[in-house]
Design a protein that fits this description.
The complex is a heterodimer.
Chain A: H1 3-13, H2 17-39, H3 42-58, H4 69-90, H5 110-127, H6 132-142, H7 148-155, H8 159-192
Chain B: H1 4-10, H2 18-30, H3 32-50, H4 60-105, H5 109-144, H6 147-172
Classes of the chains: A mainly alpha, B mainly alpha.
């Protein structure tokens, strides 16, 4: 953590909301991105990221300065998203029912936009196959380069549980990708076959 | 053919031993299913790496600060309501007790009405007498004290009031608002 951020943190602990506002400015992209990967919806991700920052602000006194602040903050966001996903499951709402919304992209190129949108949809579809905790572990590992130890701390599970969850997630993802590739290959083959005379 | 160990090795994050590496390579040369799984995992990793981070709408921190203020206001309103309810409840309870006590101490309602009217008249007389005494006292003091002293007195009172308001603000200002 930079000296400046450390100062902001001290000021925020002393009750300065604007100092915490600076921390929000520094970390909002990574927190939002994690929430988006977890929830798959831009508006829900915004709400979840805002809530994660509120929760962090509320429990600043409990933050252990020996730990990485970003890990602590992302763990709050991940836990909130896991809870949201569990609630969503309880309400029997399928992720497929949620409308896909355009993601803001600074590139004005329409092809780039389309490609980016397709990629985001692909990633979203892949992550939706995983359970909330497995999804959090995958996002932390592959987007934030968290070590097993950091994931274990963030999700309050043992290192061996992290390893087994990640392994199970990789297996699920790879198998479903293989099946999908096989199906699309078959579909293409049928499409290009000449009709029988 | 048993694919289990090879699948585990393919999807493992841990480095493989030279022996495991050799065996895996040999297996991949003959097993289409494991090769496809390997390619799938490589593709997924590429997608994960190449997908750009999603950005929130501009002004996220400003929205957060605004929402924080809204939450603080809501909490203050809720606390005020709770205090009002508690005070109201306690006052109602005391009034109720007094009422019951009064009703029990008086045998007839006419007697109660007479007592009440008597008490009100008594209080009005006391207020009137106090008013007359105070007016006479003020007239006497205004004759005895020169106007310069009145100005000094007014300035001192104003300064003391300002000091009182400032200390009250300092004492009541919350150091940290818990949300």
């Amino acid at each position: 953590m930079k000296n400046e951020e450390s100062n902001w943190l001290q000021q925020a602990i002393a009750g300065d909301a604007n100092a915490f506002g600076n921390i929000v400015e520094s970390y909002h992209q990574s927190v939002f991105n994690l929430c988006y990967r977890m929830l798959g919806d831009q508006y829900e991700a915004e709400d979840a990221a805002q809530e994660a920052f509120f929760r962090a602000y509320k429990s600043l006194n409990r933050y252990d300065s020996k730990r990485s602040f970003s890990t602590w903050l992302l763990s709050i966001a991940a836990h909130y998203c896991i809870d949201q996903l569990r609630k969503r499951r309880m309400k029997f709402i399928s992720l497929d029912d949620l409308p896909y919304r355009e993601i803001s992209d600074p590139s004005p190129n329409p092809e780039g936009l389309l490609r980016s949108r397709e990629d985001q949809q692909e990633v979203r579809a892949l992550l939706e196959m995983l359970s909330p905790t497995d999804r959090a572990a995958v996002v932390m590992r592959y987007w934030y380069d968290f070590s097993y130890d950091e994931i274990s701390n963030a999700l309050n599970i043992s290192i061996s549980a992290v390893k087994s969850r990640l392994h199970r997630a990789r297996r699920t993802l790879a198998h479903s990708w293989s099946d999908k590739s096989y199906q699309s290959l078959n579909h293409e083959r049928k499409y290009h076959e000449s009709p029988a005379l | 053919m048993n694919h289990q160990p090879y699948e585990d090795w393919l999807l493992s994050d841990e480095p493989l031993s030279p022996q495991q590496n050799r065996e895996l390579k040999m297996h991949l040369q003959v097993c289409d299913s494991c090769t496809q799984l390997f390619e799938s995992w490589v593709n997924i990793q590429n997608i994960f790496r190449s997908t750009p981070d999603v950005q929130p709408q501009a002004g996220f921190s400003a929205r957060w600060l605004t929402q924080l203020e809204e939450r603080k206001t809501k909490i203050q309103q809720r606390q005020s309501w709770i205090m009002l309810m508690i005070t109201g409840g306690v006052a109602t309870f005391i009034l109720l007790l007094l009422g019951i006590n009064l009703v029990l101490s008086v045998d007839q309602p006419v007697q109660l009405l007479f007592l009440g009217t008597n008490k009100i008249a008594e209080w009005l007389l006391i207020i009137n007498a106090t008013n007359e005494i105070l007016s006479a006292l003020i007239e006497l003091v205004s004759i005895m004290v020169p106007p310069v002293w009145w100005v000094i007195f007014a300035v001192v009172i104003s300064l003391l009031s300002l000091l009182w308001i400032y200390s009250l603000r300092q004492l009541l200002q919350p150091r940290r608002m818990t949300i």
